[in-house]
Amino acid sequence: MDHFSDEWRQKRLQELADRVGGKAALGRLLGYKDGAFVRQMIAGERPITEKTIKAVHEKTGLSGWFSTAISTVIPSHEDDDSQGVKINQFETGGSMGRGVLLRDQPGVIKSWTVSDSWLHQNVHRITSPRNLCIVTGFGPSMQPLFNPGDPLLVDRGITRVDVDAVYFFRIGEEGFIKQVQRLYHGEDLVLRAKSYNSMYDPFDIPQTGAFEVFGRVVKVWRGEEF
Q1: Distance CA 135, CA 216 (A)
Q2: What distance in Å separates the CA atoms of residue 3 and residue 53, rounded to the nearest whole number?
Q3: What is the 3-class SS of 42-53, one letter each residue?
Q4: Would strands 132-136 and 151-155 be described as parallel, antiparallel, or unpaired?
Q5: CA distance 177 to 195
Q6: pLDDT tens digits, residue range 24-70?
Q7: Fewer Cβ neighbours under 10 Å: the N or C end of the chain?
């Protein structure tokens, strides 16, 4: 298939939508109101212009997405230890000025350096590798999904609750990691935070200025002692 044909571009746009969480998520990432334009472009009802291609490359960090195969967009350097991607911890204060309190956090994981191939094979459906950060698990409310001290990867490119998933967010000055469920009461949308530990009750999130989504949790590791 010609890498510059309309069919190729439609295929690559669909692959990218799958990678970042769907057509609506990709639409918002590219600056559209919703996923309608993306759906139309994938269906061939609207052309995928050079302007759109440039926006994809700039806003996802995946340069060459429409001209190369996916295996070459994030190259592999398995034999070269000098290559890699550094993923830093989420800063809860200081220069970011958030002042977020994470209760019962037993220390932090400050950073990881991973190979490009590890990232490509183990972390999927993200907005961009550069949007990833590490949050060290805190509190027992999400056990057995993860334990305090376990590493979590969070995609900071997702700052709205558009699908039911596990999110990292704050209410006031306190940070939470919870499964968030979208519920409708009539025409009103309610966001309900739920824990994996059955000892913790769900609660509805106040959708005010005190509520902020830092990102969606895309990968967790659960530690076990032997």
Answers
A1: 11
A2: 13
A3: HCCCCCCCHHHH
A4: antiparallel
A5: 8
A6: 888 888 888 778 888 999 998 888 888 888 888 777 766 667 755 44
A7: C
With 0-12 / 13-18 / 19 or more C-beta atoms within 10 angstroms meaning exposed / middle / buried, residue 119 is buried
Alpha helices in the chain (DSSP H): 6-20, 23-29, 36-42, 50-60, 70-73, 116-122
Query: For residues 178 and 139, is the Cβ–Cβ distance under 8 A?
Result: no
Closest CA to 20 of 51, 62, 78: 62
Q: Which amino acid is at 3?
A: H
SS3 27: helix
Q: What is the pLDDT of residue 150?
A: 95
Query: Does the pTM of the predicted model rise above 0.85?
Result: no
| 170 in Cβ contact with 100 (< 8 Å) | yes
C-alpha dihedral, 66 to 69 to 72 to 78, nearest 10°: 150
Gyration radius of the chain over CA positions? 19
Which string of b and e fits 128-156 if b means at least 16 CB within 10 Å?
Answer: bbebbbbbbbbbebbbebbbbebbbbbbb
148: tokens are 């305090």
Unique residue bearing structure tokens 């739920």: 194
Residue with tokens 């009461």: 185
- DSSP conformation letters of 79-111: T-TT--EEEEBPP-SGGG----B-TT------E
Which residues are bridge partners to 194 per DSSP? 179
pLDDT tens per residue, range 153-184 = 999 989 999 899 999 999 999 999 999 999 99
